């Protein structure tokens, strides 16, 4: 099975608990006003890669405790992500999934592919980004309507500690001079950081 992804991040510490590999999928029909990643909306962007190739790259890559699926909209490619998540869970990794859809709506749809992605997900963050509710005080999320659902026991211990986990930005400087960022930061913080980097 193939996935259309925007970005494969082999190692990050800002997209969920601990060290993780992250897959940013390509394609999102939700179109939240103020979305920070509108370049992931089109289903024609990004590139295709098979689930088995991704699984091999992850197994051969840096040691991580889990994988994070974000977007784009992961539930638009639920079957492939569920397959990949299942392979990685067999290997002992955890799965965190972001969605712009609400858990209630995902459950009510009762789609097999959506149910399978839920089944392999340990921690679900749901809800669309709302710029009128913008709030970076909680880890990994950008607005106060977004909710954490602990679907398995894997991260239940974090429930009462979320307030102690900061939202962080990760900056990667490539050998060719290109700068990549992921995670959450205000535009002001990001501008300040980039100004420091180019001094
Ligand atoms: S669901 Fe996520 S990727 Fe899609 S428009 Fe909203 S913030 Fe952007």
Describe this structure in words.
- The protein has 199 residues and is of the alpha/beta class.
- It has helices spanning 51-60, 78-90, 103-109, 112-120, 187-197, and strands at 2-12, 20-25, 47-50, 66-70, 94-98, 123-126, 147-150, 169-173, 179-183.
- The chain has a single domain, classed as TIM Barrel.
- The chain has five helices and nine strands; from the N terminus they run E-E-E-H-E-H-E-H-H-E-E-E-E-H.
- Strands 3-1-2-4-5-6-7 form a seven-stranded mixed beta sheet. Strands 8-9 form a two-stranded antiparallel sheet.
- The mean pLDDT is 92.
- The structure holds iron/sulfur cluster (SF4).
- Residues 28, 30-32, 35, 37, 40, 71-73, 100, 128-129 line the site of iron/sulfur cluster.
- The site of iron/sulfur cluster has 13 residues, from loops.
């Amino acid at each position: 099975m193939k996935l259309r992804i925007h970005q494969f991040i082999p190692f990050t510490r800002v997209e969920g608990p601990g060290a993780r590999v992250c897959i940013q999928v390509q394609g999102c029909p939700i179109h939240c006003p103020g979305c920070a990643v509108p370049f992931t909306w089109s289903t024609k962007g990004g590139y295709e890669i098979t689930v088995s190739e991704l699984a091999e790259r992850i197994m051969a890559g840096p040691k991580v405790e889990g994988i994070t699926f974000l977007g784009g909209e992961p539930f638009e490619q639920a079957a492939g992500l569920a397959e990949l998540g299942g392979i990685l869970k067999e290997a002992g990794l955890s799965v965190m999934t972001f969605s712009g859809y609400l858990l209630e709506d995902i459950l009510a749809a009762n789609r097999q592919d959506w149910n399978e992605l839920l089944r392999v997900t340990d921690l679900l963050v749901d809800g669309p980004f709302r710029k009128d509710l913008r709030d970076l005080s909680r880890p990994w999320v950008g607005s106060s309507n977004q909710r954490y659902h602990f679907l398995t026991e894997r991260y239940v211990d974090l429930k009462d500690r979320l307030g102690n986990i900061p939202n962080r930005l990760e900056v990667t400087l490539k050998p060719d001079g290109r700068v990549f960022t992921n995670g959450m930061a205000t535009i002001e913080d990001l501008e300040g950081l980039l100004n420091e980097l180019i001094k």
